[in-house]
Design brief:
This protein is an alpha/beta fold. It is 34% helix and 23% strand. It has one domain: Rossmann fold. It is built from seven helices and seven strands. The chain has a seven-stranded mixed beta sheet with strand order 3-2-1-4-5-7-6, with helices on one face. The chain is globular, with a radius of gyration of 16 Å.
């Protein structure tokens, strides 16, 4: 199943004009925008409250960060390495009137201090999700939530898995169904490899 998802993502990337070969290398994670209805479902699944601090790893054009700030009034931080996407995110935050609530940082998510986060969102490849486990275990406090789009975290059983009902038709007749995974940090996850 995981192999099918990886193949699906690579096919989608190639159809969007991204270089799917780059996805084979851990240094490269191509930007694939999360549809806004999926963003809304991710934030709802995390049960975001105004007291939360949301971090989006690989924040792309900033849509999750901006949506969280606009819809819930939360402080939100986007972590992104692409300077063009960072600039687009900052401009979008200004246009949406939430620049006072959001921050976009040019950082490597694998090295980011996540300790202020109460909610972490990500739409990354499986190798990245697995590589983030030590940071999640040591930096996130009990009760923090992680929501991943389409790819789980190897070795961690999610508290909840949700398949969105809509089937998206891609060019060439390919079908994709978005899947979301939720974990809540607790002592069991903090000690699990």
């Amino acid at each position: 199943m995981r192999r099918t998802l990886e193949t699906t993502l690579l096919l989608c990337l190639s159809l969007l004009g991204a270089n799917p070969i780059a996805a084979d290398y851990p240094e490269e994670i191509p930007f694939v925008p999360t549809p806004i209805e999926v963003v809304d479902r991710m934030l709802a699944l995390a049960e975001v409250r105004q007291s939360d601090v949301v971090y989006d790893l690989g924040s792309g054009d900033g849509r999750i960060v901006i949506r969280a700030a606009k819809k819930y009034g939360v402080r939100a931080v986007g972590i992104e390495m692409d300077p063009l996407l960072l600039e687009k995110s900052r401009q979008s935050a200004i246009a949406e009137g939430v620049s006072h609530l959001v921050e976009f940082r040019a950082e490597d998510a694998l090295k980011t201090d996540l300790s202020p986060a109460t909610v972490v969102t990500l739409y990354m490849l499986p190798w990245f999700n697995k590589a983030m486990k030590p940071s999640f275990q040591t930096m996130l406090k009990p009760g923090a939530r992680i929501v991943a789009h389409d790819f789980g975290i190897e070795g961690w059983e999610p508290e909840k898995t949700e398949k969105l009902p809509e089937i998206v038709l891609k060019p060439g007749g390919y079908k994709h169904q978005h899947i979301l995974y939720l974990w809540r940090i607790n002592s069991r996850l903090q000690s699990k490899n």
